[in-house]
Amino acid sequence: GQQVMQIPQYQHVQEGEDFTTYCNSSTTLSNIQWYKQRPGGHPVFLIQLVKSGEVKKQKRLTFQFGEAKKNSSLHITATQTTDVGTYFCAGPYAGSQGNLIFGKGTKLSVKP
Amino acid sequence: DSGVTQTPKHLITATGQRVTLRCSPRSGDLSVYWYQQSLDQGLQFLIQYYNGEERAKGNILERFSAQQFPDLHSELNLSSLELGDSALYFCASSVRGTTTDTQYFGPGTRLTVL
């Protein structure tokens, strides 16, 4: 069946280091969304990418959508302790009108 | 605060029991989604409703059922509970229920089955 995979599953960084998480889909996606879940919290929408090769930036966060629209990445420059949490990517479930399939997420911890 | 409310926040019950989780979507949102999140697991999609009707079904067990009412709030019913049903259950809502919608998640209900 359709899968959305994320690597790494866990990442521990020193504050100030960069961080990247990768998302790979078994199918071509019409769009991809990224969510962040802080420890003890709920997922919060970060961004949506729609176009092939699209790159979007939010302050220290850079999101990319692959040319084939089957992969995506989130890069954080100079991590801060506020970046701690789990980052999920999600794409449309094939043939579905409305639901998304989520990756298992990358859990980021930042050592001050 | 996402504007999505879920009750109760915590629920502790015994195996074999039945519970009901409640979700109120953001004002103006017509679609509601239910997800299950187990320890160190991602978000498993259970079911989606749009304006009172079921729109999509995921890995929802037959022991689980849901509905969306005319006032758009939704309930997830879990019956014949097993230890493995212990998890965090999230409700999310969106405006149109399409795959390009932003989903707004509620704070979740933590279910513990003893």
Descriptive report:
The complex is a heterodimer of chains A (112) and B (114). Chain A is an all-beta fold and 112 residues long. Chain A is 0% helix and 54% strand. Chain A has no helices and eleven strands. In chain A, strands 2, 4, 5, 9, 10 and 11 form a six-stranded mixed beta sheet that branches. In chain A, strands 1-3-8-7-6 form a five-stranded antiparallel beta sheet, with no helix packed on it. In chain A, a hairpin with a 2-residue loop joins strand 6 and strand 7 (61-65). Chain A starts with a strand and ends with a strand. The mean pLDDT of chain A is 96. Chain B is an all-beta fold and 114 residues long. Chain B contains no helices and eleven strands. In chain B, strands 2, 4, 5, 6, 9, 10 and 11 form a seven-stranded mixed beta sheet that branches. Classes of the chains: A mainly beta (112), B mainly beta (114). The interface between A and B is medium-sized, with 27 and 29 residues.
Distance between the termini of chain B: 31 Å
Unreliable stretches of chain B (pLDDT < 50, length at least 5) are none
Relative helix content of chain B: under 10%
What is the mean predicted local confidence, pLDDT of chain B?
A: 96
Of all chain pairs, the largest interface belongs to: A-B, 27 and 29 residues
Overall residue-averaged pLDDT value of chain A: 96
Task: Give the DSSP E fraction of chain A (strand runs of 2 or more residues).
Answer: over 45%
Count up the helices of chain B.
0
Judging from the principal axes of the Cα atoms, what is the shape of chain B? globular
Q: Uncertain spans of chain A, ≥5 residues at pLDDT below 50?
A: none
Largest sheet of chain A: 6 strands, mixed
As a percent range, the share of strand residues of chain B is over 45%
Along the chain, the helix and strand elements of chain A come as EEEEEEEEEEE
Question: Structural class of chain B, please?
Answer: mainly beta
